[in-house]
Amino acid sequence: MMASGRCSSCGQGLSTGTGYCTNCGSRIENTTAQPAASTWASAAPSSPFAGNEYIVEQKILTLRDTFGIKDTAGNLLAYVKKQSVSFGPKFWFEGPGGERLGEVHGKILSVRPTFEVYGEQGALLAAVKKKILKLLGSEWWMENSSGQEIARIKGNIVEHDYRIETPSGGRIAQVHKKWVTIRDSYGVQILDRSIHPYLTLSYVIAMDHAEHNRSKSRFGLSLVR
Length: 225
What we know:
By secondary structure, this protein is mainly beta. The chain folds into two domains: 1-43, no CATH class; 53-224, Porin. Helices cover 12% and strands 37% of the residues. The protein is built from one helix and 14 strands; from the N terminus they run E-E-E-E-E-E-E-E-E-E-E-E-E-E-H. It has one helix spanning 197-224, and strands at 2-6, 13-15, 53-61, 66-70, 76-82, 90-94, 100-107, 114-118, 124-130, 140-144, 149-156, 161-165, 171-176, 185-190. It has a twelve-stranded antiparallel β-barrel with strand order 3-4-5-6-7-8-9-10-11-12-13-14. A hairpin with an 8-residue loop joins strand 13 and strand 14. The radius of gyration is 17 Å and the shape is globular. The termini are far apart.
């Protein structure tokens, strides 16, 4: 049965029993349509991202470019693996049992650096984009599938010291290295689930990959000189 109303972000009809729009991942504000404790995970039962604190290990396997996502107790929740041969960077989220949870595709022919985030069923949920005309630092934002901005960042991406905010300045997540002991890893603390943790983690990893490659390229050029 459909709940009364539609998602305010993308216009998709809302189903009862879900706290997040199954089309774009935005939180459903109509509290009569679902219990407040429900999450987007109810639309994707295999999603392991029900908690609020995660550790991202940048190189969990040496054979390929693979991230590991763990909880603070060290339990592996998912891998994020990069496809070795693809037209542009392509990652997929994979559960410990091998189930595919979603994908992130880099668009190398777009006007600006762009990553598209897809859900478990292959639906486009969001896009991560970078402002190309910025004199200092980097500026990335996330849009939903309708092109509406839903998140932006403030801080230092390369040092993994920044926060993710709503367009109005509300805090969604904090990225830091405060309670991380393993080298090449960092913490992601969810402060507001207005964006599902899967989208937040996709946002973080897309920026991490792009900025890490940019820094490595600059270092290589300095050696050549």
